Amino acid sequence: MYLTEKEEKMLSGEEGYAVKKSMEILVALGDIYGAERLIKVGSVQVAGVSYQNLGDAGLEFLNELAKDGRVKVLTTLNPAGMDLENWRKLGISAEFAEKQNLVIDAFRKMGIIISCTCTPYLIGNLPRYGEHVAWSESSAVTFANSVIGAKTNREGGPSALAAAFVGKTPCYGLHLDENREPDIHVQVTAELKRISDWGALGYSIGKKAENKIPYITGITDAELDELKSFCASVVTYGAKPLFYMQGITPGSEKYQPPKDQVTVEDKDLREAYEKINDETSEIDFVCIGCPHCSIKEIGEMAELLKDRKVSPNTEFWVACSRTVKQLADTRGYTEIIEKAGGKFACDTCMAVAPLKGRFKAVATTSAKGCYYSRQNKMLTKMGSLEECIEAAVSGKWS
Ligand code: F3S
Asked: Which residues pair with 154 in a beta bridge?
């Protein structure tokens, strides 16, 4: 890969340890994927924040980098393993909290915004159309590429951090227009009525368009929260982190539907629900906010929970960024949800919090949430917001 004089100096260590290490990572990636050069990025989203996934080795790696590593571009952070303020309320142990706080301290020292959310585009990290960025976190990457029309590969935690310290990323993969062409036409005839249908749609398209870029037709309307949910699901279940939705997402006007074609009908969505849902009627955990909730979703939840009480046998979490919760505070939504017995899980989520062995069965609106909850050994139920609120109140799935 060609390096400018300044980049060569960075690689030789002239700007310190973190930049040198970062350049080594970027050059290695660039060489593996055949990049010709580095390109500037407008922002970075760093994943790999939960101490649960990092462990002591990860913490040590971050502390080494934090000694002299400072980010050069706007850099935001994915969810951590706990609510940084109210971790006790969520049943997180003091030992875990201590380690998680050390992880956060390292990121803070690097100059990263402690946003702890997988929806950075809702809280101020919003790239423009066509902008190159280096994001990790698959749902955010898919949203950036597809809904915003920015350009990013699906970075890992270390390569995103490296891009942040250098301000650049190797130009390969989805940074190049020739790799962004759709390669399968997905015709959707299924009716999409509720938020979880978008997760089911993502499941179905992810399976049918495995490792491909879908060009989706047949959908005439999509709200931001629906697209957010679809982005998380389609990439979790197999597609590349980029899709086009005709007439809805940017760039869809540039391409014709590819010849290779599949359809998604009502029966495919039913099948997706069957695959995602387990046999269980008892629910002891309900979590809404995968990806993290928007203020609109929190408002809908508050409306449904007004004058109701969460079952004493059920824990109900609203996962969102602290910034969005602050908006919820101003609207009175927080008060309604907490009065009903719900808990805000800011800065964290159902996948990266240390939940293994704590709950038997989860209800959620999110297909991605179900995927990761199974890895946390929970039975899963995916349904509409109304069904999830009913499960929280009754402790049952009906
Ligand atoms: Fe976000 Fe966690 Fe879901 S990172 S997309 S809430 S699994």
From this structure: 135
Instruction: Yes or no: say if 370 and 351 are a contact pair by the CB < 8 Å rule.
Output: no
For 198, residues 6+ apart whose C-beta sits below 8 A from its C-beta are 192, 222, 226, 227, 229, 230, 233
Ordered strands of the 315-320 beta sheet: 343-346, 315-320, 285-288, 361-364, 379-382
CB neighbours of 313 closer than 8 A, spacing ≥ 6? 284, 395
Distance 196 CA to ligand 1 centre (A): 15
How far apart CA 246 and CA 214 sit, in angstroms, is: 11
Pocket test for ligand 1, best of 52, 137, 139 (most atoms within 8 A of CB): 139
Provide CB contacts within 8 A for 298, sequence distance 6+. Answer: 318, 320, 324, 325, 328, 333, 337
Is the Cβ–Cβ distance between 125 and 144 less than 8 Å? no
CA distance linking residue 139 with residue 349, whole number of Å: 13
Rounded to two decimals, the pTM is 0.98
Tens digit of pLDDT per residue, the chain (398 long)? 999 999 999 999 999 999 999 999 999 999 999 999 999 999 999 999 999 999 999 999 999 999 999 999 999 999 999 999 999 999 999 999 999 999 999 999 999 999 999 999 999 999 999 999 999 999 999 999 999 999 999 999 999 999 999 999 999 999 999 999 999 999 999 999 999 999 999 999 999 999 999 999 999 999 999 999 999 999 999 999 999 999 999 999 999 999 999 999 999 999 999 999 999 999 999 999 999 999 999 999 999 999 999 999 999 999 999 999 999 999 999 999 999 999 999 999 999 999 999 999 999 999 999 999 999 999 999 999 999 999 999 999 98
Nearest atom of ligand 1 to the alpha carbon of 291: 5
Sheet holding 43-46, edge to edge: 74-77, 43-46, 134-136, 154-155
Distance 183 CA to ligand 1 centre (A): 27
Give CA separation, 273 vs 217, 235, 350, 384, in Å. Answer: 22, 17, 20, 12
At residue 185, what are phi and psi to the nearest 5 degrees? -90, 120
